[in-house]
Amino acid sequence: VTTMSFPEFNLQQDRLARKEYWQSRSRALDGESAVSSRNLLPKIYVSPVLDRIFGGSYVELTPRGNVTLDFGGNWQKIENPAIPIRQQRNGGFEFDQQINLSVVGKVGEKLRVTTNFDNNNSFDFQNNLKVEYTGFKEDILKKLELGNVSLPLNNSLITGAQNLFGIKAQMQFGKMFVTTIATTQRGKQSSVRVAGSANGASQGRPFEIVGSNYDENRHFFLGQFFRDNFERWLTTLPQILSGVNVTRVEVYLLNRNNDTQTLRNVVGLMDMGEAKVYRSNVLSPTLPANSPTQNGANNLFTLLPPSATADNVNGLLEAQGFVNGTDFEKITGARRLAPSEFTFNRELGYVSLQRKLQNDEALAVAFEYTYNGRVYKVGELTEDYSNKREDEIVYLKMLRPRKIAVKDPAGRILPTWLLMMKNIYNLNVSQLTRDGFQLRVIYRDDRSGIDNPQLQEGQFARTQQLVEVFGLDRLNPYNDPQPDGNFDFVEKITINPETGAIIFPFLEPFNTALRTLFNDPREDPGLRDFLINK
């Protein structure tokens, strides 16, 4: 056992302390420290003189963040004869970078410097720089901030401020705290005052749409059955007792995007699913004319060539008597739209696209629905052609051909023209609310220039509000079947608040509705003949 006296022990401790001190100084000069394995940049020890000012004799930098670089390429080739050869192949390299970096620097325990940078920030003030000095409990200067600062105040008399850039100091004198700030404000505060109407509703901007300016090439019935029953199903507002529930709709368009995941060669056929066939010299119905739209409504599916490809399908169909561009359209490399690119009305059987079709775009669909509890299907859904080869044709129902035509050379109206809805008007606004919304249908007299809510002709017609004539006023505020002179705000039926679409309950409101008005037996037959038949 070795023993030492207290003076010897005291001398030994003094030697160990001096040795550890000089070793730490040596490590600091070499850029090393006890925590060098934990941080990318080690602590740097400086003169002890700074200890009194900053509460420590070291400098520490802690960087954090990430840099992401994405490299790739995307090429696509569409063998479509309608597209020039140079445009059939397109693509290129893709490069994207994302930098998210922050650095925290400390000098002792009191001084802290914080900065961050992100190249995805929308505004410069989101990239912050802040120098913060925090005093100890016994110091008069409690905190000194430079850079991005704020002045929050918890009272309603004086409002605080955010997004400030400057200097802010907090001091304590006994029990009194003093905060001083000198900054510039990077943000801008503004207020908009919206005047209210007499009933307290807010006033929005007015709009005006001419009756002939309906939202064309965007809304389509899924079949003649839904069009033929549309007006009848809407006579029981606010409920729709159609018995229809559309469960699935798959929509196909010409691929104009760089999407290669949902491409198929498809053929849309006008008479698919229809009991009232247009090409009667080739097809024969198998069900009554008023039957629901379904694949078995006529013998079309039995005539379709199996295993047809994009190279031979045109010739095979034309050999059977079908006319390309009228009875069918082939879409090479058609893209199946995502659910976010269209909506469909489950009870009335029509589809609405998020954008209008261009003049050279054909539209084809496949869908499934129930009617009075029975399931019906039109066209080939995804699971129906999953076992087909990639080059085989998928057969769908055509809602619109590339070239729009109203009548054929014989003067017959084409079914595809009838499927395009002409009773929906777009207000070019979104997120409408019932409060404060007003809609009027007016007749502008060319001679006087006055807007009238009624027509000026006829003994009976001139007493009817036009908003009621066109079926937009059938209910009172309690949804009872009693017109009250105001527009019936029935979501998804007379109006779509999300898209700002007004939906008339007549197929051709400025045709059939006016004919119904003047065909009233109380109206003068001579006037009716002059206004309607002439």
Topology at a glance:
Layout: H1 6-29, E1 44-45, H2 51-54, E2 58-77, H3 85-88, E3 89-107, E4 111-118, E5 129-134, E6 141-151, E7 161-173, E8 176-185, E9 219-221, H4 224-233, E10 244-254, E11 263-269, H5 300-303, H6 313-319, E12 328-336, E13 342-345, E14 350-353, E15 363-371, E16 374-378, E17 394-400, H7 415-419, E18 424-426, E19 443-444, E20 451-452, H8 466-469, E21 495-496, E22 501-503, H9 509-518, H10 525-533
Parallel strand pairs: 11-17
Antiparallel strand pairs: 1-2, 2-3, 3-4, 4-5, 5-6, 6-7, 7-8, 9-14, 10-12, 10-15, 11-12, 13-14, 15-16, 15-17, 18-22, 19-20, 21-22
Brief write-up:
The protein has 534 residues and is an alpha+beta fold. The chain has helices spanning 6-29, 51-54, 85-88, 224-233, 300-303, 313-319, 415-419, 466-469, 509-518, 525-533, and strands at residues 44-45, 58-77, 89-107, 111-118, 129-134, 141-151, 161-173, 176-185, 219-221, 244-254, 263-269, 328-336, 342-345, 350-353, 363-371, 374-378, 394-400, 424-426, 443-444, 451-452, 495-496, 501-503.
